Amino acid sequence: MSAPDGRVVVSTDLLLEGRHFRRDWSGGYDVGRKAAAQNLSDVAAMGATPTSLVVGLGIPADLPLDWLDALTDGIRDECAAVGASVAGGDVTRCDLVVLGVTAMGDLGGRRPVKRSGAAPGQVVAVAGRLGYSAAGWALLEAGVPADSPALREAVAGHRRPCPPYAMGPLAAELGATAMLDVSDGLLQDLGHVAEASGVRIELDPTRFAVAEPVAAAAKELGTDPLEWVLAGGEDHAFAAVFPAGVRLPEAWRVVGRVCEGEGVAVDGWEPRQRGWDHFR
Amino acid sequence: MSAPDGRVVVSTDLLLEGRHFRRDWSGGYDVGRKAAAQNLSDVAAMGATPTSLVVGLGIPADLPLDWLDALTDGIRDECAAVGASVAGGDVTRCDLVVLGVTAMGDLGGRRPVKRSGAAPGQVVAVAGRLGYSAAGWALLEAGVPADSPALREAVAGHRRPCPPYAMGPLAAELGATAMLDVSDGLLQDLGHVAEASGVRIELDPTRFAVAEPVAAAAKELGTDPLEWVLAGGEDHAFAAVFPAGVRLPEAWRVVGRVCEGEGVAVDGWEPRQRGWDHFR
């Protein structure tokens, strides 16, 4: 692997069958794309360009070879989509499918954007999808047939995220003071920014456009779509803090501001659930 | 993480409770040291100096906190022993303890030493321990009490390898044409070198000094210690191929030579077992 500028960022995650994916809900190809995406997006959300990825793979003896082939195809294709390559791996036998994925990225001479740089007076913006994965998961969990294009897109969004990779290095160049990818839910992840930066973040719920697939799923299930947008995880949208007055490209939507204080508040909205608990 | 020279090597492994370690045989601290060591040694055996490590950790809800603390202490201490640092990690719940460990290293301007550079006429040398882990495992498996210093050292060698880290970059500087760390057993791992290089490797069994702990365990169990030396895995000794006539420091012992042909042969010795099968 090459690291021309001498600064590398790295991200690692463990994905477990039954906890992070179900083989009856997701094919090998989708699992591969999702496994790669969640680490590549973490690297990009530090402002780096993903360069390579390694995978430690645990597989049951009776895993169909087709599923394994599809998995590795999915990993490779997600890497290729961002110009990264699969640099190696390790295979071992396990009772369930386990993936240990590590992605690396090149900062191109910049400092990594961390969670700790937000300051009062700055603005909070998001890029990418919010609520798709939670909506799709809710449809699958409820056993509701995805019989419209919108519902199918929500389910597809659960199976495979679509991180706004290019927005990471771009935000770094635009002067982002803090950034992360939304893996556990916007409120919970912005809570990490608030805590690391010693600030309070206030979000304006009217600034969030609820996408059609999320709205359609909420209507189908009779629930509040904003809950999925604000607290749903695994879409790997990017959330960043920028200096006030920054001119942002359309892909970044300003949704809140940074104040003195602590925690994350949404004006006039009370969440029932604050994101995904790693230990549920 | 810093990569001053612009070339980075990376190694990843998945360690599973029950397959790669047993909590009744190894404490958290030993598991941590071993998990870190097996990836740090892989990096060093490419000729690089290990710089950093990331860990994806799956833990059961009822895992004692002391065990987890000891595990992270072990990982940190093994890294510190080679001047590397723990750069981050990820924790998730799992029914068994799973570690996905990825280590990175800096090549200091050199090319990585791969498995494919061996050529006829060159010599094969090893550095570090061979047979300790297999001997210790056999003692534990047989339930033989480790009631002498030699037997205790064999068991300790199973719980925690002692890779000759510094020998990796040194071998690279001395012109090693192929190198790896012995994770699956010397014969099996040299088989990878023979295959990747398109050569035959012939070992002289009289060149191997059987260490006292390995000899003592073999005597206790009435078995051939050379089997553990040649086919036992997990000691993370380094095996390398050097140009003929190279002057090697004492830590490297010449044990064979590279010829035309294929495969690995041991003069006058027939192994019952060719190393550890990943899929046993």
Automatic annotation (TrEMBL), chains A, B:
<keyword id="KW-0067">ATP-binding</keyword>
<feature type="binding site">
    <location>
        <position position="12"/>
    </location>
    <ligand>
        <name>Mg(2+) 1</name>
    </ligand>
</feature>
<feature type="binding site">
    <location>
        <position position="184"/>
    </location>
    <ligand>
        <name>Mg(2+) 5</name>
    </ligand>
</feature>
<keyword id="KW-0547">Nucleotide-binding</keyword>
<dbReference type="GO" id="GO:0009228">
    <property type="term" value="P:thiamine biosynthetic process"/>
</dbReference>
<feature type="binding site">
    <location>
        <position position="90"/>
    </location>
    <ligand>
        <name>Mg(2+) 1</name>
    </ligand>
</feature>
<feature type="binding site">
    <location>
        <position position="13"/>
    </location>
    <ligand>
        <name>Mg(2+) 2</name>
    </ligand>
</feature>
<feature type="domain" description="PurM-like N-terminal">
    <location>
        <begin position="5"/>
        <end position="105"/>
    </location>
</feature>
<feature type="binding site">
    <location>
        <position position="42"/>
    </location>
    <ligand>
        <name>Mg(2+) 3</name>
    </ligand>
</feature>
<feature type="binding site">
    <location>
        <position position="115"/>
    </location>
    <ligand>
        <name>ATP</name>
    </ligand>
</feature>
<feature type="binding site">
    <location>
        <position position="181"/>
    </location>
    <ligand>
        <name>Mg(2+) 3</name>
    </ligand>
</feature>
<feature type="binding site">
    <location>
        <position position="20"/>
    </location>
    <ligand>
        <name>substrate</name>
    </ligand>
</feature>
<dbReference type="InterPro" id="IPR016188">
    <property type="entry name" value="PurM-like_N"/>
</dbReference>
<keyword id="KW-0784">Thiamine biosynthesis</keyword>
<keyword id="KW-0479">Metal-binding</keyword>
<dbReference type="GO" id="GO:0009030">
    <property type="term" value="F:thiamine-phosphate kinase activity"/>
</dbReference>
<feature type="binding site">
    <location>
        <position position="11"/>
    </location>
    <ligand>
        <name>Mg(2+) 4</name>
    </ligand>
</feature>
<dbReference type="GO" id="GO:0005524">
    <property type="term" value="F:ATP binding"/>
</dbReference>
<dbReference type="GO" id="GO:0000287">
    <property type="term" value="F:magnesium ion binding"/>
</dbReference>
<dbReference type="GO" id="GO:0009229">
    <property type="term" value="P:thiamine diphosphate biosynthetic process"/>
</dbReference>
<feature type="binding site">
    <location>
        <position position="234"/>
    </location>
    <ligand>
        <name>substrate</name>
    </ligand>
</feature>
<comment type="pathway">
    <text>Cofactor biosynthesis; thiamine diphosphate biosynthesis; thiamine diphosphate from thiamine phosphate: step 1/1.</text>
</comment>
<feature type="binding site">
    <location>
        <position position="13"/>
    </location>
    <ligand>
        <name>Mg(2+) 1</name>
    </ligand>
</feature>
<comment type="similarity">
    <text>Belongs to the thiamine-monophosphate kinase family.</text>
</comment>
<dbReference type="Pfam" id="PF00586">
    <property type="entry name" value="AIRS"/>
</dbReference>
<keyword id="KW-0418">Kinase</keyword>
<protein>
    <recommendedName>
        <fullName>Thiamine-monophosphate kinase</fullName>
        <ecNumber>2.7.4.16</ecNumber>
    </recommendedName>
</protein>
<feature type="binding site">
    <location>
        <position position="276"/>
    </location>
    <ligand>
        <name>substrate</name>
    </ligand>
</feature>
<feature type="binding site">
    <location>
        <position position="42"/>
    </location>
    <ligand>
        <name>Mg(2+) 2</name>
    </ligand>
</feature>
<feature type="binding site">
    <location>
        <begin position="89"/>
        <end position="90"/>
    </location>
    <ligand>
        <name>ATP</name>
    </ligand>
</feature>
<feature type="binding site">
    <location>
        <position position="42"/>
    </location>
    <ligand>
        <name>Mg(2+) 4</name>
    </ligand>
</feature>
<keyword id="KW-0808">Transferase</keyword>
<dbReference type="InterPro" id="IPR006283">
    <property type="entry name" value="ThiL-like"/>
</dbReference>
<comment type="function">
    <text>Catalyzes the ATP-dependent phosphorylation of thiamine-monophosphate (TMP) to form thiamine-pyrophosphate (TPP), the active form of vitamin B1.</text>
</comment>
<dbReference type="InterPro" id="IPR036921">
    <property type="entry name" value="PurM-like_N_sf"/>
</dbReference>
<dbReference type="InterPro" id="IPR036676">
    <property type="entry name" value="PurM-like_C_sf"/>
</dbReference>
<keyword id="KW-0460">Magnesium</keyword>
<feature type="binding site">
    <location>
        <position position="183"/>
    </location>
    <ligand>
        <name>ATP</name>
    </ligand>
</feature>
